[in-house]
Amino acid sequence: xxxxxxxxxxxxxxxxxxxxxxxxxxxxxxxxxxxxxxxxxxxxxxxxxxxxxxxxxxxxxxxxxxxxxxxxxxxxxxxxxxxxxxxxxxxxxxxxxxxxxxxxxxxxxxxxxxxxxxxxxxxxxxxxxxxxxxxxxxxxxxxxxxxxxxxxxxxxxxxxxxxxxxxxxxxxxxxxxxxxxxxxxxxxxxxxxxxxxxxxxxxxxxxxxxxxxxxxxxxxxxxxxxxxxxxxxxxxxxxxxxxxxxxxxxxxxxxxx
Length: 257
Fold this sequence. Notes:
This protein is of the alpha/beta class. The protein has two domains: 3-46, no CATH class; 67-207 and 218-243, HUPs (Rossmann fold), CATH 3.40.50. The chain has helices spanning 3-11, 17-27, 29-46, 49-59, 97-113, 132-142, 158-171, 183-195, 218-243; strands at 75-79, 83-85, 93-95, 117-120, 150-152, 176-180, 199-202. A five-stranded parallel sheet has the order 5-4-1-6-7, sandwiched between helices. The longest helix has 26 residues, at 218-243. The radius of gyration is 20 Å and the shape is globular. The model is unreliable at 247-257 (pLDDT under 50).
């Protein structure tokens, strides 16, 4: 486990709640009991779809879904998410389901607008061989017949997605873009892209909706995790933007796919 994954496990609910419960068992006494029961209550609460969906929807309020009148988008930026590592000879890598969802939304948007596409994402795991942006570009071109004009293969975070993509696009005089990612990820991505001088219009995969389902599900745990991860990341990016903190300088490739 790398340092980032360890920090996520310690900070982001509900993945950190079993650790809180274990800590409570070790401490015992009254504070230990409070920790155990608090962790159990949190796990139950975050397993309810009605709670998880409300957390996701809270991230999707007020997104800039309409292009600005005076600055229409000139390009489509598709953000990467994850890759899957398959067992077998060669340790084959495959685009993960979140990334594929974003690519499909980008393909649909391309057919409506015919704007040039930039894909962004580097090596996001210790075992990853090929930058995810290069994998995305190959699949978009060979499987979907959609051209990719720019490949940004170095970024490891959304903040770097924005920094390196903005550097590439500004060289071609592009300042306004459609930003394709999951709806719950748009707020953080938009904040980052604005910080680096682009005008982003949200082009989410799909908007989430509230539900009245109260039966626990593992999917609700996943959605609760996404929501907390994004809110924590959004606060972190707010601080970075407020402090005017850039990413460290790094060589940026703007080669076409």
